[in-house]
């Protein structure tokens, strides 16, 4: 009998889950992929958009194009999730009660993070974790004539631990190529003690060095407390001025989840770290919405690469269950990331984040190759899925 799999969220994790499932058993399954946004943004490209290396229409595809080969796409906001009965309801203006409900045999939750703006930062700067914010930042940067540029992380956690560092280095390249370096100061403020801390002291130190060697001023352990037209105030009593501001948003678990028993003490969904199954049988959660504690005391970072590998694991295991087989796979904590440095170069770090007692993550010599590998992945993503 045909089985129905509800895939919640068509971001990195949801797309890979749906496509892998359709490859494995398209004819024996009905896959329903839910997504609220019609524009499907490839987040890593937002960094290139910020500095004019991409146009807005080059960084997203149309969510409806994900349909086909056993995948039905439902565009709409999921309002309620019932993990016990494996069902969801989606906002629907046409329906009498304003909602349409869907029931499945399996559910994969990949709703990512809900992004909010604190301290009225939207009035003063640009949220570069959104299409609109990265676009508006780029407009201001193109007209920039010199002054103070601040890249700000106002709160933890944030997805893609490398992104603010990449943003600062790409902006520095842009400014240098425009001949504005002598008139410009670029600073990065964050509450973290150092960059990409989960990857270990050595790697964190190497990233800090990369940033500072470019002349970017780095301010770790700076927790924002207030913002005004030209000033940022921090909990250590320091204030700073800026002329152009790029910031990350506050991240929280999506409301549709926080209303359910799926939410754990961490404020996120806590799953089995190898199978990604929740406490509800046949209900899985993957990607940014999960909280996976590591032995070193911090959680697994929120990054697309983990959502991707977790999705492959979950899709494989659901297909095994449907066909009554037991050749199950495990997500083993492997992950890699590229670190854009500007002027066509990038670094690359990868390893095992489930390493005991510490993650084992190494950095390769930065160079042009890693930048072009990241560009190739972006092209591949759009070619393959949109
Ligand atoms: C600027 C930037 C650069 C990045 N660069 C990298 C990188 O180089 N490498 C890397 O590994 N990671 C990178 N990331 C992080 C990566 O994008 C995320 O970790 C990844 O997308 C997480 O996948 P996910 O499936 O968990 O969530 P998402 O990809 O965020 O997908 C969640 C989806 O669920 C949808 N959704 C949410 N709530 C609802 C609802 N109620 N109803 C319907 N739909 C809903 C959302 O619209 C979204 O499409 C970057 C992120 C940013 C912002």
Major sheet strand order:
5-2-1-9-20
Arithmetic mean pLDDT: 96
- Helices, by number, come to 9
Low-pLDDT residue spans: none
The bound ligands are:
flavin-adenine dinucleotide
| Span of the ends, CA to CA | 30 Å
Strand content: 25-35%
CATH homology superfamily name of the largest domain: FAD/NAD(P)-binding domain
Examine the coordinates and then state which fold CATH places here, giving the name of the CATH topology of the largest domain.
Answer: FAD/NAD(P)-binding domain
The protein's oligomeric status is: single chain
Which secondary-structure class do the elements indicate? alpha/beta
Query: Overall 3D geometry?
Result: globular
Q: If you had to describe this structure to a student in words, what would you say it looks like?
A:
With 386 residues, the chain is of the alpha/beta class. The chain contains nine helices and 23 strands. It folds into two domains: 3-113 and 253-334, FAD/NAD(P)-binding domain (3-Layer(bba) Sandwich); 115-247, FAD/NAD(P)-binding domain, CATH 3.50.50.60. Helix content is 27%, strand content 28%. Strands 5-2-1-9-20 form a five-stranded parallel beta sheet, with helices on one face. Strands 11-18-12-13-14 form a five-stranded parallel beta sheet. It has a three-stranded antiparallel beta sheet with strand order 6-7-8. Helix 1 runs parallel beside helix 8. The longest helix has 19 residues, at 304-322. The model has no long low-confidence stretch (mean pLDDT 96). Flavin-adenine dinucleotide is lined by residues 9-14, 34-37, 43-44, 46-47, 77-78, 110-112, 129, 159-160, 163, 254, 256, 287-289, 302-305, 307, 337-338. Flavin-adenine dinucleotide (FAD) binds next to helix 1, strand 2, helix 2, helix 8 and strand 21.
